Amino acid sequence: MHFFRQAASVALLFGSLASAARVLVDWDIGYVNLDRDGHSPRRAIGVNGALPIPPVFATKGDTLVIKVRNSLDVSTSIHAHGLFQNGTSYMDGPAMVTQCGIPPGHSFTYEYEADHAGTFWLHGHDHHQNSDGLRTPLIVRERREPHRYDDEYLLSLEDWYQFEFADRLKDTLDPTKSFPPPPSFPYALFNGYPTTPTLKFKPGKTYRIRIVNMSTTEWFQFNLPGHQMRVVEADGEHSRPSAVDGLDMGPGERYSVLVTAHPTDSHNYHYNATLYAGFVPKIEDKNPRYYQGLIEYREGAPIMPTTEPRNFKWVNDVELCALSGNPPLPVDRQIELTIGGSLFTTGQILDVINNITYAQPKIPTLHSALSLGSPLHMNESLYGPQTHAIVLRHLESVELTVNSPNSLPHPMHLHGHAFQIIEYGSLANRSEPVRRFSPEFNAPMQRDTIVVPVNSYVKLRFRADNPGVWLFHCHMDIHFGMGMALTFVEAPDVLRQRQQVPDSMLELCRAQGVRTEGNGAGNAGFDLTGLPAPPVRVLRNGPALPPTE
Ligand SMILES: *[C@@H]1O[C@H](CO)[C@@H](O)[C@H](O)[C@H]1NC(C)=O
Ligand SMILES: *[C@@H]1O[C@H](CO)[C@@H](O)[C@H](O)[C@H]1NC(C)=O
Ligand SMILES: *[C@@H]1O[C@H](CO)[C@@H](O)[C@H](O)[C@H]1NC(C)=O
Ligand SMILES: *[C@@H]1O[C@H](CO)[C@@H](O)[C@H](O)[C@H]1NC(C)=O
Ligand SMILES: *[C@@H]1O[C@H](CO)[C@@H](O)[C@H](O)[C@H]1NC(C)=O
Ligand SMILES: *[C@@H]1O[C@H](CO)[C@@H](O)[C@H](O)[C@H]1NC(C)=O
Ligand SMILES: [Cu+2]
C-alpha cells in the first residue's frame, strides 16, 4: 500500500499547542534510471537517488527550508505551487523570472513561510523538470481545520511519458516535423506508482482525501461510486461543502473531498480514476485509460456493484462557495488576454498571449524590477519584448478576462496570488455566460489554477497586494514551452523598498555570467541590444488560422 497517511489525528490534537516549526527538506536532485509505469524504462529526475519524491508535510506558519543540490547537467529551481511568497518573491522559483537557475554542481537553500494552509505541490520550474519527475505534494495543515474528519489520505496523480520532456518539446517545435507530433499516450501514476492504492475505510468514519493533479498534459477524472464526495477545498481555499459525484481536474489543480464511510463493513467498493486527453481522438486502451482502486472495509468482503448516478455531477469551480465569505473584489482595471497558437515565419507553431510568445529575458525579471529604478521600472518594454511584462500598481484590483478561441482547454496558473472566479462562458455568446458568480453563493472561490474551456472566456479577479514578479502561464508544460506565459511585475516601487534579494541568490547568476542589474537585456536604461528580435507571426487575411494546441 502506498497511500501516504500521516497521523492526522495527532496533528489535530497537538497542532494548536505547537509553535511554528522549521520543516527541513534536503534534496540532491539528479538523474535516475527506472521503469516507473512498467512500460517505459527511461531516464528521469529524482531526489537522493529515487522516485517518487516523498511528500512534504507542514503546518501553517512553519518555515520551509528546502536545501537543493543540483547534480543534473543543466540548471534547476524549485517552485512551491500555491504558496504566495508574500515578502519573498525571490523565493518563488521560476528560472529567469525570479531567479537564475541553480547551476550544475551548485547548492541553494530556499527558505520561506508556509503562508496558508491547503494542498499544494513542490516542483521544478527550470527546463520543465516537473515533467520528468521533479514534483511532489506539499501539504500545509491548519492549526485548527474548519472541517471535521477522522483521518486523511493523499492521492497524487501524474501522467508519465515514455520520452523525456526535452525530446517531446523538440519535436513539437521542429518545423520540419508534423504538427502536433503524433501523441504518445502516457500512463497514470498514483502517489508515484503505476498501481492504484487501496483506501481503507472504517464504518462510520469520515475521511479527507486530498487529490493533487501533478499531471503535465493529461486530465484526470476521479470518483468513488457508492459514496458521496463533498468538496471542501480547492487549491488551498476552503469551500462550503459541496456534494459532487466526480472530480474533473486539470494539470496543477487540487481538491480535498470529505467522504463518510458506510455504517457497516459488509462490502468493499471500487473507485475510478480515468486519465484522458479530450483534445485527441479516443483510442481503445490508450485514451482514455481507466484505472480502478479498492475501497476496503474488510479484507475479502464482496464488492458492492454500483451504477453511475443519473445526472452525474462534476465539481464546478464557479458553483463552489468560499468558506471565507469574501465578496467579489471591485474592479479598478480590466486586462483582456487572448491565448492560443499562431504560425510564425520560422515555420513553427508557437503559443501566444495577445500575440506575444514568451521567451526568457537575459536577466531574471525580478532583478530588472529591483534595479531599473523609477520611472523606468514602470516601462513594460524594458523587461524585454518577449517577457510580456504587465506592470501592476500597488493595491489595484484587477479583472483578467482570458479568451481562449482554441480547441484545447488550457489550465492557466498564476503565481503569487489566488484569483476569484467570477464568470465563464462561450466566446460566441458573451451576453449569456454559462456560469456567473451569483449573490446566491455570495462568495466566489479563489484558486490559483483555472482550466479555460474550449472556445470560452473566464473572468478572474485579484488584488495587487503582493509586490513581486509573478508568472501567469499554461500549466500544460508543452504549452508553457511553446510560449504561453506572461509576467506580472507587481508594484516595483514598493518591491524595491521592501525586498532585497539575498546574496546567495545573486551568486547563482554570477556563477553563470548572468548580470543582476539592468533591463531585460541586462543593459542600463533603454538599450535592449543583446536580446534577439521576437519571431514574426504569419498574418493571414480572412479566416483565422485553425486553432492549434
Ligand atoms: C490533471 O491534470 C491533467 C492535465 O491538465 C488533466 O488532464 C486531468 O484531468 C487532471 N486530473 C484531475 C483528477 O484533475
Ligand atoms: C467505474 O469504472 C468502471 C470500469 O471502468 C465502469 O464500468 C463504471 O461505470 C465506472 N463508474 C462510474 C460511476 O464512473
Ligand atoms: C493580434 O494580431 C491580430 C492580427 O493578426 C490583431 O487583429 C489583434 O488585434 C492582435 N491582438 C492584440 C491583443 O494585439
Ligand atoms: C446564448 O445562450 C443562451 C442561453 O444559454 C441561448 O438561449 C442562446 O441560444 C445562445 N445563443 C447563441 C448564439 O449561441
Ligand atoms: C501580503 O501581505 C500583506 C501584508 O500583510 C497583506 O495585506 C496581503 O493581503 C498579502 N497578500 C497575499 C496575496 O497574501
Ligand atoms: C519605454 O521603453 C521603450 C524601449 O526602450 C522606449 O522605446 C519607450 O520610449 C519607453 N517609454 C517611455 C514612456 O519612456
Ligand atoms: Cu495550454
UniProtKB/TrEMBL annotation:
Residues 1-20 form the signal peptide. Keywords: Copper, Metal-binding, Oxidoreductase, Signal. InterPro entries: Cu-oxidase-like_N, Cu-oxidase_2nd, Cu-oxidase_C, Cu-oxidase_fam, Cu_oxidase_CS, Cu_oxidase_Cu_BS, Cupredoxin. Residues 29-144, 152-277, 360-493 form the Plastocyanin-like domain. GO terms for molecular function: copper ion binding; oxidoreductase activity. Pfam families: Cu-oxidase, Cu-oxidase_2, Cu-oxidase_3. Belongs to the multicopper oxidase family. This is Ferroxidase fet3. It comes from Coemansia spiralis.
